[in-house]
Amino acid sequence: MLVDMPGNAQLLVVQPRSGEFRAFNPACPHVGSLVNPPAGGVITCPLHGSVFDVSSGAVRKGPATSGLREVAVARSGEDLVLA
User: Fold this and answer.
1) CATH architecture under which domain 2-82 falls
2) Three-class SS of residue 41?
3) Where is 60: in which H helix or E strand?
């Protein structure tokens, strides 16, 4: 799910397993285009087809040579907050 943040920023928040949440910068590290929401355990860039692991953001298939940048989040009651 894409979450809007202050200052026109966005985060891609995923739940790879029950009770586990991860957040990533949704810009593909290849050329900066916005990645698609997760599907089938992966996150895909629609521009050139890079594929990233939904749990870690690591590259599974290029042309990207680095993974999605993770943003630390933590649970605070029922909310997720930047850690």
Assistant:
1) 3-layer Sandwich (2.102)
2) coil
3) strand 59-61
Spans of all domains in the chain = 2-82
Radius of gyration of the chain (CA): 12
Blockwise average pLDDT, block size 10, the chain, 83 residues: 83 90 96 95 96 97 98 90 87
Task: Tell if the pTM clears 0.85, that is, is over it.
Answer: yes
Look up residue 70 and give its two tokens. Answer: 């993770």
Pick from 38, 20, 32: nearest CA to 74: 20
Q: How far apart are CA 19 and CA 65, in angstroms?
A: 30
Which residues does residue 20 pair with via DSSP β-bridges, in sequence order? 17
